[in-house]
Amino acid sequence: MGSAGELFEGEPTGLPEPMALGSATYRLASDPAPPVRHLGGYERFVAFCAGQGVEAVELAADPVRLIGFLRTFGKDIAADAGLKQAAGVFAGNTLARARPDAAWTAYEGAPAMVGTDDLRFEVGRLLDALREADEASLQGFITKVSEWAGDRPDPPMMHPQPAFLPAAPGYVRPGLPEDTYYAEDGTVIPYGRRWGDGPPDPDSYSVTSHTERFAGLHLVARAVIDHLAAVYDVEVREDNAVTADLLVDVRDVVAAVNVTPQDPGAAPLTFVLTGFPGVVVHAGALHDFPFPVCGCDACDETVLTQADRLERLVLSVAAGGYAERYPVGRRRWREYALTAFDGSGAESGKGEPGPIDETRLQEAEIRLRDVQGGWAPWPLRRR
Question: What pTM value is reported for the model?
Answer without folding.
Answer: 0.73
